[in-house]
Write a structure and sequence with these properties.
GTPase that plays an essential role in the late steps of ribosome biogenesis. By secondary structure, the protein is an alpha/beta fold. About 35% of the residues lie in helices and about 20% in strands. The chain has a seven-stranded mixed beta sheet, sandwiched between helices. It binds guanosine-5'-diphosphate and magnesium ion (MG).
Length: about 160
């Protein structure tokens, strides 16, 4: 089986945009990944000749389960199944209570957690990323999923963590 990279984070932080950025044109939905249900979509991805499974965990309806419960479920799923967990935060908003709750869970993970400070679209926004050191998950990696800024460096980092 391919290494699994799970993307977790609150709604609207840019998880799906990041997934699309990583997949480029090679998007392919993987049906047979264990534990993947309607609210977790798995794709087969390729970077630098290395194949891996990318799981976008954000498909559920947060209002149905309650946002806190959803994030907890998502983080626990990732900790049980992924080889690398990518935790995405919206750096233009900063760390919310929900982000802090997810971070508290993810700090206990026995596998690498890559912290993404998304929506750093330009140099002026870099300072927003630095504030996410407060999540206690190490260095925040500034990225713009929308424009592709630093997304190659992020992928290198994810593959190194496998
Ligand atoms: P998800 O709910 O976490 O999957 O978030 P989405 O990928 O659906 O993105 C939510 C919104 O944030 C959309 O309007 C995106 O266009 C926007 N977005 C995502 N990434 C970025 C980014 O890097 N910069 C900016 N400015 N907007 C972004
Ligand atoms: Mg999404």
């Amino acid at each position: 089986p391919l290494p699994v990279v799970a993307i977790v984070g609150r709604p609207n932080v840019g998880k799906s945009t990041l997934v699309n950025r990583i997949l480029g044109r090679r998007a392919a939905v993987v049906q047979d990944t264990p534990g993947v249900t309607r609210d977790r979509i798995a794709y087969e991805a390729l970077w630098n000749g290395k194949r891996f499974t990318l799981v976008d965990t954000g498909g559920w309806d947060p209002k149905a389960a309650g946002l806190g419960a959803s994030i907890t479920r998502q983080a626990e799923y990732a900790m049980n199944t992924a080889d690398v967990i990518v935790f995405v935060v919206d750096s233009s908003v900063g760390a919310t209570d929900t982000d802090l709750a997810a971070a508290r869970i993810l700090r206990r993970a026995d596998r690498p957690v890559v912290l993404v400070a998304n929506k750093v679209d330009d140099e002026r926004s870099e300072a927003n990323a630095a504030e996410l050191w407060s999540l206690g998950l190490g260095e925040p990696n500034p990225v713009s999923a929308l424009h592709g800024r630093n997304s190659g460096d992020l992928l290198d980092l994810i593959l190194d963590a496998m």
